[in-house]
Amino acid sequence: MLQRKWTSRWPWLRSVRESAQLQRSGQSELRIRTRAPPGSTRPPAGRPHASAAGQQIRTGAMKPDICRTFSKETEIKTQENNQSDREEVAPGRSSRAVSPPRVDPDGPCALRRLQPLRYACQRRRTRPGFGSGDVAGTVREDRSCCRGMAKEQSRAETYVLAGSNGHGDQQWQTGVNHSARPPPANSALTWRMSRVASDVRQKCAAYVLALRPWSFSASLTPVALGSALAYKLDGSVDLVVLMVCAVTVLVVHGAGNLVNTYYDFSKGIDHKKSDDRTLVDEILAPQDVVMFGALLYSLGCLCVTLLYFLSTLRLEHLALIYFGGLSSSFLYTGGIGLKYVALGDVVILITFGPLAVMFAHAVQVGYLSVLPLVYAVPLALNTEAILHSNNTRDMDSDKQAGIVTLAILIGPTLSYVLYNLLIFVPYVLFCILATRYTISMALPLLTLPMAFPLERQFRSRCYAKIPQKTTKLNLLMGLFYVFGIILAPPGSLPLL
């Protein structure tokens, strides 16, 4: 009777009594350390206690700051609340925030809700179950008062987020309940569209790099030179024809680079240290390179057809020049592979020199002339220097692949001599033109200081960066050459 009277008078003592009983029976699992609620009083000293825990409190051996556990009634209610929460989340296994646990207003720790911040309960998470339908990371607390916090404080409680990771197990995160918002309805569509756009940009960049755009100066400067000769000698230039002609030469040049990439890879010439690793690094597939090359050749044919209607040049002359250049770009590595039998230098010397200059001049004036062939010699020699430096750099790998180039045939010493001739002979020709005809032809001599470092690097056999630097020299020298022709006084240029 005395025990029942005390437990009804001080509700917290009932929990102490049950805690002591659970400790003695060895059934206590989870505990949380708290202090006695403010405002509560101890039982009067001198009154007998019915349990050992009560006796310890009376004598002062056990302070109100004690370890308490759930009562059986509270554990049953907590399990029911957790089961209902699991039934809300488990069927769809969707990544939704678990709703705040239900509150037991009549629980033994209701006083705890008066100061939820000061007496915040500590939590422990269990390891998430794998392959089960339970909410991963179920939070187990020693006091039901943690579930009975005030409504405004429960919003800031930590919640558990569960969802499948695609491998049959569960992954879980923690967050803040008030920050949980369902994802926008169009978020998946937006992400997918951005992913597709990113893939398209990467694919386009891969195609552009496969064209080797840094080498396009070898085809643009001959077009500019032929058009400048047409303007200076005949006094007329059609800008539309100039643009279409430039596109035609560029697409044929790009298609030739793709053919070179494909056959060098198929013959095992390209490797991880090669300058062109489009297929070696699997940036593009071989069939993509083939299709892209065929597309560029077809586009070149359409441009030539358009030139036939825009220019007064006869069809047979137009077809002869165009298909001559197209065949050279393909046969350089495709078909019989002129590059592999030491004839690649001859092909480049003719195609990217006299042939391209004649093509640009003919579509402007409407007839064929030998004059562009003479003016194309300085530019053709400098363009050939690009190829020769590239072949000299790849001399060892070409030997291992079993192909023959001019650099392999003549050796490093004669390759150095030939490179110097290809670099410095154009400057000699410019000096002759400047002294005998017009001073404007001395403009290309401004690039002469760039040639001496290339000669020193070639002599020391530092071939790594020479092709790129020679390409830059070719572009600048070609531009100054074109400007020199345009700025020349009327009638000052030599005629044949």
From TrEMBL:
Q: What is this protein called?
A: UbiA prenyltransferase domain-containing protein 1
Top-rank taxon, per record: Eukaryota
Q: Where in the cell is it found?
A: Mitochondrion membrane
Please give one Pfam family short name. Answer: UbiA
The cross-references to Gene3D superfamilies, in alphabetical order and at most eight, read:
UbiA prenyltransferase
Please give the start and end residues of each transmembrane region.
Answer: 239-259, 289-310, 330-352, 358-381, 401-419, 473-493
**Keywords in alphabetical order:** Membrane, Menaquinone biosynthesis, Mitochondrion, Prenyltransferase, Transferase, Transmembrane, Transmembrane helix, Ubiquinone biosynthesis
Q: What is its EC number?
A: 2.5.1.39
Does this UniProt record's set of keywords contain Ribonucleoprotein?
A: no
* Compositional bias (Polar residues): 19-28
